[in-house]
């Protein structure tokens, strides 16, 4: 049986959230906010089922963020601020949240502490088989409620760094949806400023504003929000860009080459924000060439990572500084100085020393076995990734490897990572909000028994995360960053580039954070 983390892996990796929020560079109409009207946003795929306990895809959580609140949220600089909880008290193994008293669910019922506890415990119930348990919700977390006091306590079996921070990711179900989860397949039952009123899969999702909403972060209300939000499913990014330029839609998140013409279009609000890393992993199974750390380091040295970064991101990326998405709870650079530097001569010497000698056709051989690398990647990630894996193939062929590129669809990639294990190197971005959410992927039981798809066995990383996990988040940050560096020094995975995406708008403004709407930020503009 796969662990919850393993079940969630590919969804997190391939549809990891775009991050950031705030600002933009202007444009989109010069007038004042226009109350009422309809804000239309392009979704790149259908969100699927809408039960928050099952919402592992970024596109699903983008949709849900209009209708559901969390206990806390993060400011643009990463600091935690109140949302449904007006205050909290933290102990090493628990956090007690005091709820606001003026919050109502979309059916008019008041939010209770039991609703919050029920949302958490439903996810951690083994019968739910929630894919976010063990990833967005820490393994072992339990919730207890005191409705009279209006408090809910999240507890862990032992001290845990990010109890409060984990609450950023928990959409709270309340009202009728608590007792009848079937209502959530194509409906919403939350405290957010919008309620889903129409769901037409693979076409559109329509939300209506709740004017009574008055409990947003920093006192935000629904007073100036658009009356309606329509999320239109538009899989083709070029089509979405065309519709935005023409004013047919108001917003879209753009990853590929169309962002350049949007950035050059007058009247378009342009906000470039960090995305997931472009990165690759080596399979370290006992029968794989990269089981040997010297081979991993040599293969990494054979690649000009700076050139690869430009290719993978089509020139729109930034230097990678860590594994966790913005806004990060731990600031700092765990990458610089910790990744084997580009040195083809040293790479060749290291492969020679490891016993991999060039054969008659130039391919290195050891004990009668050719140095063959099956390089796997998802074909859905655009031209930049395709060019990046071709560049990697060329670099490793020059170093004496036989490289076989294997571009496959998401479902096949998931099967290969979690079951068949038919790969040697994989290009795989993983997007998480907390360093603790990576542990199951980077240590522990190897696939198919666990989520450790690359068979990593980095004792220094394991020791450091065990130490960091027992410390309060701020005190443990240096150790969490040191743990990431330990992975890079061993060439367990290679961070190449911090990708960016463009949040574009016309006739409107909006903010997103970790791929989710800040729904109280949505505005239609006069003159847009």
Automatic annotation (TrEMBL):
It comes from the Bacteria. Residues 1-16 form the signal peptide. GO terms for biological process: peptide transport. GO terms for molecular function: peptide transmembrane transporter activity. It is found in: Cell envelope. Keywords: Signal, Transport. One of its GO terms (cellular component) is cell envelope. Residues 79-432 form the Solute-binding protein family domain. Belongs to the bacterial solute-binding protein 5 family. This is ABC transporter substrate-binding protein.
């Amino acid at each position: 049986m796969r662990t919850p983390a393993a079940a969630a892996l590919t969804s997190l990796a391939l549809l990891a959230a775009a991050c950031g929020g705030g600002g933009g560079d202007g444009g989109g109409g010069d007038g004042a906010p226009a109350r009422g009207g309809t804000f239309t946003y392009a979704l790149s795929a259908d969100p699927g089922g809408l039960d928050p306990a099952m919402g592992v895809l970024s596109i699903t959580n983008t949709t849900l963020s209009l209708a559901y609140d969390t206990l806390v949220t993060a400011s643009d600089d990463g600091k935690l601020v109140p949302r449904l909880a007006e205050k909290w008290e933290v102990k090493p193994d628990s956090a007690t949240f005091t709820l606001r008293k003026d919050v109502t669910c979309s059916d008019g019922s008041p939010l209770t502490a039991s609703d919050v506890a029920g949302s958490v415990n439903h996810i951690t119930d083994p019968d739910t088989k929630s894919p976010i348990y063990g990833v967005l919700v820490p393994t072992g977390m339990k919730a207890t409620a005191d409705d009279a006091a209006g408090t809910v306590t999240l507890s862990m079996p032992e001290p845990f760094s990010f109890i409060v921070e984990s609450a950023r990711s928990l959409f709270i179900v309340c009202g009728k949806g608590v007792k009848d989860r079937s209502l959530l397949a194509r409906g919403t039952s939350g405290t957010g400023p919008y309620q889903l009123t129409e769901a037409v899969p693979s076409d559109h999702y329509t939300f209506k504003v709740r004017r009574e909403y008055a409990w947003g972060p920093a006192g935000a209300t629904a007073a100036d929000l658009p009356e309606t939000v329509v999320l239109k499913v538009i899989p083709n990014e070029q089509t979405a860009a065309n519709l935005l330029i023409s004013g047919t839609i108001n917003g879209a998140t753009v990853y590929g080459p169309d962002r350049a013409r949007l950035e050059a279009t007058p009247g378009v609000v342009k906000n470039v924000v960090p995305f997931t890393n472009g990165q690759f992993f080596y399979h370290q199974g006992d029968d794989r060439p990269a089981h040997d750390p010297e081979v991993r380091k040599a293969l990494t040295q054979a690649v000009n990572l700076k050139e690869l970064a430009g290719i993978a991101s089509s020139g729109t990326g930034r230097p990678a500084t860590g594994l966790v998405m913005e806004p990060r709870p731990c600031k700092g650079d765990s990458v610089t100085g910790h990744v084997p530097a580009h040195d083809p001569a040293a790479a060749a010497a290291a492969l020679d020393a490891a016993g991999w000698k060039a054969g008659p056709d130039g391919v290195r051989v050891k004990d009668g076995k050719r140095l063959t690398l099956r390089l796997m990647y998802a074909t859905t990630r655009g031209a930049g990734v395709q060019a990046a894996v071709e560049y990697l193939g060329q670099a490793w062929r020059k170093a004496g490897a036989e490289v076989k590129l294997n571009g496959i669809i998401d479902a096949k990639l998931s099967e290969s990572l979690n079951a068949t294990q038919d790969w040697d190197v994989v290009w795989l971005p993983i997007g998480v909000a907390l360093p603790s959410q990576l542990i199951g992927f980077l240590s522990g039981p190897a696939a198919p028994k666990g989520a450790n798809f690359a068979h990593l066995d980095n004792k220094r990383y394991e020791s450091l995360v065990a130490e960091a996990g027992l410390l309060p988040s701020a005190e443990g940050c240096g150790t969490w960053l040191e743990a990431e560096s330990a992975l890079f020094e061993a060439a367990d995975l290679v961070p190449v580039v911090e990708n960016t995406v463009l949040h574009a708008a016309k006739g409107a403004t909006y903010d997103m954070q970790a791929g989710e709407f800040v729904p109280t930020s949505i505005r239609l503009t006069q003159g847009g």
